[in-house]
Request: fold
Amino acid sequence: MAEPRPCALVPVYDHPATIGAVCAELSALGLPVVLVDDGSHAECAAELDRLAAHGHHMLRLDCNRGKGAAVRVGLAEAQRLGYTHALQVDADGQHASEDLPGFLAELDGTPEALVVGYPRYDASVPRSRLYGRYATHVWVWINTLSGEIRDSMCGVRLYPVESLNRLLARHSCGDRMTFDTEILVRWHWAGGTLRNLPVRVHYPRDGVSHFALWRDNRQISAMHARLFCGMLRRLPRLLARRWRRAPVEARP
Reply:
């Protein structure tokens, strides 16, 4: 792998109050920032124009296509610009910037790894969000026959760009909320190296969520069903992998 050249990748849809601070925190880490405007309305679009005028690289989608679509576009642009890794961070400012250097530190030892955040919540987390995530966690553990992916929904992760784009050329992984989970399951199926790191999460009282209850839950349910069928087709290979990785004393 080439000498690591990371950037930050931030998909943005209507977070005008927080995106400036997120960009400042990422720039303080020495990261060039690639912004993808996912069809934001006028107030956020104007803020993104201001940030682009101050040197951040921005792409603008002509309409709201969803987080997955924005991340795919951003990863393709990151590779075109010559970056080897993209630190994806959400635009809402919920994740502690002090925890981000740990993700970049993984480049020294395992630059081929996909590094995934798992949340460490404070008291601000809504109980519905906290407990609702576990249905997806259980399905991910079933569909990978593994507990390797601690959390598949956290918005902080370090992607090896070229490898991810090759995977996405075969599997788009959805345009909206399904993307974050499906890309990790397919990365695991492909035998990619994965690391989990903690990241502190705070939910501001006036935070903005773009989760569409009926649409996104329907798409997430369909994704889990589709991945379950994919797991069944891969079952012999996944079981063989578990056998190879199991300690000798744990085998029957």
In short: The longest helix spans residues 213-233. The beta strands are 6-12, 33-37, 57-60, 85-88, 114-121, 157-160, 194-201. Residues 248-252 have pLDDT under 50 and may be disordered. The two ends are 39 Å apart (CA to CA).
